[in-house]
Amino acid sequence: MIKLKKLHGKYTHGWSGVGHYHDSSKSLYAYKEYRIKTNDIYMGWNIFKGDEQLNPITPSCGMSFKEAKEWLEDYLKEEESK
Predict the structure, then answer these.
(1) Sign of the dihedral through C-alpha 31, 35, 40, 44
(2) What does the alpha-carbon distance between residue 19 and residue 28 come to, in Å, rounded to a whole number?
(3) For each of the chain's 82 residues, which pLDDT tens digit applies?
(4) What is the distance between the alpha carbons of residues 56 and 8, in angstroms, rounded to a whole number?
(5) 21 vs 26, 52, 58, 60, 66, CA distance in Å?
(6) Beta partners for 37?
(7) Residue 31 lies in a domain
(8) Contact call for residues 45 and 65 (beta carbons, < 8 A)
(9) What residues does 35 pair with on adjacent strands?
């Protein structure tokens, strides 16, 4: 299991109105040279190495954060076994 480092600041996310709307689009996590980030509010997390997106581009809302982390862990295991 990899340990991700949070690269965004504590007050990065926008909060507004009743219900405290949380915008994840400014979230950024890292493991070595890999990054997990999204442009969406809740879903659509992608894995990057530099500017290259490693995971397949998916239509609609894409992967959850948990799925993106698991995808990266599986990718790293596969790369290690080569």
Answers:
(1) negative
(2) 23
(3) 899 998 876 655 555 566 555 566 778 899 999 999 987 666 688 999 999 999 987 666 678 889 999 999 999 999 999 8
(4) 24
(5) 14, 30, 25, 21, 20
(6) 28, 46
(7) yes
(8) yes
(9) 30, 48
DSSP 8-state class, residue 40: S
- H helices of the chain, where? 65-80
Range of the domain at 29: 22-80
The count of domains in the chain is: 1
Residues sharing a CB contact under 8 Å with residue 48, sequence separation 6 or more, in sequence order = 34, 35, 36, 37, 54
The reported pTM is: 0.77
Going by C-alpha positions, the residue among 19, 6, 59, 66 that lies closest to residue 42 is: 66
Distance CA 43, CA 59 (A): 11
